[in-house]
Specification:
alpha+beta; Beta-Lactamase; seven-stranded antiparallel sheet; globular; actin-binding; actin monomer binding; PFN_sf
């Protein structure tokens, strides 16, 4: 994946905007169907899903992340010193997990850039 090739993202995925399928994933990243659906619900600004994620965390591949930001720019959550950046295109959601030695802002920029590219490409 081009996300991982940047060095700012350790694992990444692209899922459908409905959260019902994975379009591409890193070989060592398995996002469960229920996790994809929650991510899609948060992206669509479902208040119950957002509130639950803030209260209980956001799970990706079984890892719990603390939701720290959810706005029009995207979603960001942390698990210790690592984190996950999520950005939506028209029909896809880009997910990038970064390691603790990567600055969150760099990972977020890479994820947002790919989402922007997908938007411009009609996705």
């Amino acid at each position: 994946m081009c996300l991982v090739a940047t060095g700012h993202v350790a694992k990444g995925a692209i899922i459908s905007i409905a959260g019902d399928s994975a379009w591409a994933t890193s070989p060592d990243l398995t996002i469960q169907p229920a996790e994809m659906k929650v991510i899609a619900d948060i992206v669509s600004k479902d208040k119950a899903a957002v509130d639950k994620a803030y209260a209980e965390g956001l799970y990706i591949a079984g890892q719990r992340y603390v939701l720290t930001r959810n706005d029009d720019e995207g979603i960001y959550a942390r698990a210790g010193k690592s984190g996950v950046a999520i950005a939506a295109a028209k029909s896809a959601i880009v997910i990038g997990i970064h390691a603790e030695n990567v600055q969150a802002g760099n990972a977020t920029l890479v994820v947002s850039a790919l989402a922007d590219h997908l938007k411009k490409s009609g996705y």
